[in-house]
Amino acid sequence: MFDGGMTMSFHTVNCPPVLGNLSKNVTQCRTRPNPSFSVQMSSTIIQIDEGGNLPKSKKISGSCSALFKCQAQNSLLSQANTVGIIGGVSVLSTIIFLEKLVWWSSRNGEESVPFVVCSDPALGGCLISQGSIHWSLGDIAQKKVNHEPIIENLRHKRVFLEQSGACCIVMPCHISNVWHDEISEGCSQPFFHVGECFARELKEAKLKPLDAGSNVRIGVLSTCETIAAGSYQEKLRKQGFEVVLLDKATMEHILIPAIESLNKRDMEGARNLLRIAIQVLLIRAVNVVILASDELQNLLPQQDPLLKKCINPMDALARSTIKWAKSAKKLHMKT
Are 38 and 14 in contact (CB under 8 A)? Predict the structure, then answer.
């Protein structure tokens, strides 16, 4: 996953649903050495006691040119531009986000953004067990689904990251961002919402509507109505965009079968159905299509012309995070 002459050491925390004992785990990722470009990040071992308290951490290694103190003196990382990342339903998507965060922040030979990750693969199982991935907003209201345990789980992770020295929090997960307001309640640090980051970038791009007399239309392609509405629709509308979703028939007969084909490893069938779903939105004069699902990412081949019309919103989240981190670093270098 990480290649191209980079040596990096980072600490990934697998956080259980309720904070308790955490086993020590330091992961090192090494690739082909390149003397002209080497990025090293500080790494720390941490263990939480039975009471959920964070002890003083020990620094293992690191070669950052400068350390900037954040609010917590006994935190895992002390740089003022440390990013805290709450892993999502897909561990792979979290890793891909980290790859972008590292490479994009160190393109010009700069130090990459310091970060601490809290990843809980069991979270995906919790969501799937409650069926929320494929339920609509109407289904959730009718069945009175209780998502409070999941929200509390994610809130614990956010607090853990703050205590670990994170001065900014992000969640590279389409589903988790549905409860962003609840999870961020009481947060003492900036907490970026993927929908807000993406909508802001689109606003700055100054897109022109394809139909005269209408607003710029943005298509949202998601396997879950809840994600489309909760994570993107509201944020895009606040910026003046018209949001276009798939109709119920296309969802049931095109997109959902595409995911089913993917699960059966029928890649060609899944690709063809996804192409149809994208075309349905493009016919409705959308400027771009948001692929708001981990399952849909990287399904089409890179040379597919339809990809030029599709956007991964997590890229906007990564760029906003890097912009914040570089700004925070410069600010604390002056003080």
Answer: no
At 126 the three-state DSSP class reads helix
| DSSP secondary structure code for residue 176 in this structure | G
Tokens standing for residue 216: 């710029």
Strands (E), the chain: 7-10, 12-13, 27-30, 43-45, 58-61, 83-86, 115-118, 168-170, 217-221, 242-245, 288-291, 310-311
Q: Strands 83-86, 168-170: parallel, antiparallel or unpaired by DSSP?
A: parallel
pLDDT of 114: 93
Among the ranges given (50-64, 96-110, 191-205), the one the predictor scored with the smallest mean pLDDT:
50-64
What whole-number distance in Å separates Cα of residue 34 and Cα of residue 4? 8
pLDDT of 20 > 90? The answer is: no
CA distance 212 to 190: 38
Sheet of strand 288-291: strand arrangement:
242-245, 217-221, 288-291, 310-311
Asked if residues 248 and 242 have their Cβ atoms less than 8 Å apart, the reply is: no
More confident residue, 67 or 232: 232
Whole-model pTM: value is 0.76
Centre a 10 Å sphere on the Cβ of residue 228 and count the other Cβ atoms it contains.
24
pLDDT over 70 (residue 229): no
